[in-house]
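Q: Could you fold this chain for me?
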Amino acid sequence: MLAWLAAVTAAEAAGRPAAPPARGTAPACDERRQSLIRALYRELLGRGPDAAALAQFCDARLGDAQVKQAITGSAEYRRHAVQTLYRELLGRAPSAAELSQWVTTMQQGSTAEQVRQTIMSSVEYRQHVVHTLYQELLGRGPATAELTYWMQAMQQGMTEAQVRQAIMNSVEYKQKKS
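A: Sure. Below is the predicted structure, expressed as structure tokens.
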């Protein structure tokens, strides 16, 4: 691992920003490499790299896969991944405790995909799906019995797409569309 990456990791662990790189220490990057670094930052962190990060990742000794590994190994990536999953799957931000729990879980070796699967198996996720589908397709929230029915169906293996299709096959939905 490069010395700067170790410094960044140590700085993150201490809760402070890493020191900027020394001027002129990173070799010039070709356009393909800069584009890759920028694309990885956008995809994995939801932002572009700052000048210091771009300069450091331009180090020719670090391969493309190693750049991605360095980014996905960072605390910033873990925080961003958890926050993104909560917004996408639950329609809300995680609480401080939830964020801390999942970041720690990822730090201990779980992947973002494993966190996604765990969230998708939760009661809250199933509730969110049913509420969202009812609002989107029927213009109302589900009654308690409807919510219970669909949550049980999802718990037993029914997918979101199957629930959507079943609601779209309902008399209520067809009357709304006619």
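A (continued): Residues 1-8, 16-27 have pLDDT under 50 and may be disordered.
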